[in-house]
Amino acid sequence: MRIEKIIVNKLFGIFDHEISLNMSDRITILHGKNGVGKTTVLRLVNGFFNSKYSELRAIPFEKLTIFFDDYTHLVILPKQIEDVMRKSFRFSLLKNGTNNKIESFEYKSKAKYLGSDRSFPISIIDEVIPNLERISARRWLHLPTDEILNLDDIIERFSHSLRV
User: Fold this and answer.
1) d(CA 98, CA 2)
2) Does 117 reside within a domain?
3) Phi, psi (5° rounding) for residue 51?
4) One domain, residues 15 and 91
5) What is the pLDDT of residues 112-142, one digit of tens each?
6) Tens digits of residue pLDDT in 2-55
7) For the whole prediction, is pTM greater than 0.85?
């Protein structure tokens, strides 16, 4: 299954983008003015496929649709929950040209608070979670995967260890 097209609506509350991928040459060049969201669209797609939902939470958008070459498409809809800082996401896989859902689920954020209003000391992360090396005040290197994680990534992945 390969991605054929990506559509994002109301990126930053402003931009609507439709990106058709060049399937024959397998290379697509994104170009546009600075600040219109080229890299941000790629971050959204990467955030979904690599389960980095903190990326999806951090970027304001109304709807992300990814079309595949097997005549299906994925729709990602963010929605606010509980307080203004938390989001859940509705993921729906549909058959192209219809609203028939093949699969659908909702992901609810495990992070209780985003930003600087955490209810626990950040230093506990270094004490409780193995295989993390702090590389800056709010960034860690996850040694098994060589991923750089921010605080929200850690809350999402390791909330069971942190008891948040």
Assistant:
1) 20
2) no
3) 55, 35
4) yes
5) 544 444 566 777 888 888 889 899 888 899 8
6) 999 999 999 999 999 999 999 889 899 999 999 999 999 999 999 899 888 878
7) no
Token pair of 74 as six digits: 């994925």
Rg of the chain taking only CA atoms, in angstroms:
18
SS3 156: helix
- Cα distance between residue 114 and residue 117, in whole Å: 7
User: Residue 12: helix, strand or coil by DSSP?
Assistant: coil
Same domain, yes or no: 17 and 88: yes
Tokens for 101, please give them.
């859902």
**DSSP per-residue codes, 35-64:** TSSHHHHHHHHHHHHTT-HHHHHHS--SEE
Question: Is the model's pLDDT at 73 over the cut of 90?
Answer: yes
